Amino acid sequence: MQLTPILGWTATVLFTACYIPQMIKTYRTQKIDGLSFRLLFISFLANIVALWYAFLIKQPPLQFKYALTMVLLIICMVLYLKIYMNRNVSRERQ
Question: pTM score > 0.85 for this model?
């Protein structure tokens, strides 16, 4: 295998994996302080555009990366919203 595809797939795995520690931390602590929903949402939109680009230039590593990253971002946003809503419900009860 040539160096170029190895570098492409390595970058794909590393860039995609960078969301996992944040998801784990947010899930375990149930805290969203310091985590910006806007950042997650804008990143999601950017990945949609990038995925479209990756399909146009026919780059499977990029297609995989952007598609998987979008899934991880959806999980992050759902987790964020769930914690945000639970926190607001708790405040209203007090």
Answer: no
